[in-house]
Amino acid sequence: MFLEVMAAVSRWAVPVVITLILAYGFWKGVRVYETFIEGAQEGFWIAVKIIPYMVAIFVALGIFRQSGAMDLMISALAPILGLAGIPPEVLPLAIIRPLSGGGALGVTSELIRTYGPDSFIGRLASTIQGSTETTFFILTFYFGSVGIRRSRHALAVGLLADVSGFLAAVLAVNAVFGGG
Amino acid sequence: MLNIIWLLLILGGVLVAGLSGQVEVVTDAAMTSARLAVEFVLGYMGIITFWVGLMKVAEESGLVRSLAGLMRPVVGLLFPSLPRDHPAVGAILMNLSANLLGVGSAATPLGLKAMEELQKLNDDRETASDAMCTFLALNTSSVTLIPVSVIGIRAAAGSADPAEIVGTTIFATSCSTLVALSLDYLFRRLGQRRGGGSRCS
Question: How far apart are CA A142 and CA B90, in angstroms?
Fold first, then answer.
């Protein structure tokens, strides 16, 4: 039942959101086509700005993997992580995710490209990327903007939330798509 | 931090390749990966362009604002210390709505606006207030309905069903948000008992 609901949400989410946004916009008298084009111009430049992040991460991970260093790391960590059903390949993502949004997007893309979007690792990386945040960036930026120097428990909460998002992702992907 | 990890990945790779007598692999990996990265972004560009365009329509039509209206009771519950009609509440609502819809570019400016308003209610200028901590807990635990960039990446990589991970993502992100809010509550309670956390807002 729960799994069926998750699958249904996945199937319907995008079409429903597209329809809702366009129909509501039209109903409210927005010139949908012109407004779309205006926004899409910005979107194009967002993609361009991602390129340097992608190159930095693809190159670092490419070297790390093809040199055999990744295999060393995997054989060292696999027994421990295997107990929890976590493939060691996603470890770089877990480490970089709280630090850099662009970097994490790079790692996720690289994993998806290397292992395939519909592989266990591909699905897991996708879910982790969507359910965790760039905690350090948000804290620094938000607190910095108003001059807060003592952030109290905010960092601990943010990082523990990322850890639980990561574990929940492992759990959900194992349950819905079956283990890797 | 990222500096060190990035450097370690590359130096570790060069070291292992060198020690195993195949250092030329590094050259090939660097050149190929750099080219692949750009090709990948080109494949992904169409989707991100489409989505940002769509989100512009959502913003212009006031959909983000309506969603904010729906969530008002929840925010009252989460931020009991805020006066009901304070501008901070409005900014928080808009930020959460933008996050929920995946309009990242709109979420950040709205979030900064919310922080500015919360700071006005804060009586210790350099220490985060309770409301700020709760607000940051929501933002750092990510509340996303549609993980737009991930769907785009998957589509660009030729997935048979790019959106199949929406369900698992919503589940995982709900878990992390729940954990964040519970921990925030617990920490606040602990702080009060020690007599240190009763600052304001």
Answer: 17
- Spatial contact of B65 and A30, defined as CB atoms under 8 Å apart: no
CB distance from A49 to chain B under 8 Å?
Answer: no
User: pLDDT (tens digit, 9 = 90+) per residue, B7-65?
Assistant: 999 999 999 999 999 999 999 999 999 998 898 888 878 887 888 888 888 888 888 77
Q: Do A161 and B38 touch (CB under 8 A)?
A: no
pLDDT of B49: 85
Q: Which residues contact A159 (CB under 8 A, 6 or more apart)?
A: A98, A135
Q: What is the 8-class DSSP label of residue A120?
A: H
Half-sphere exposure of residue B161, counting CA atoms within 13 Å on the CB side? 14
> Of the candidates A54, A61, A126, which has its C-beta nearest B41's C-beta?
A54
User: What's the mean pLDDT in B162-183?
Assistant: 93
Query: Are residues B156 and B43 in contact, defined by beta-carbon separation less than 8 angstroms?
Result: yes
User: Which residue is it, tokens 């996050």?
Assistant: B99
* Three-point CA angle A82, B146, B106, nearest 5°: 120
Q: What is the pLDDT of residue A24?
A: 93
Residues 6+ apart with CB under 8 A from A146: B115, B116, B118, B119
Dihedral (C-alpha) A118, A158, B88, A39: value to the nearest 10 degrees? -30
- ipTM for the complex? 0.82
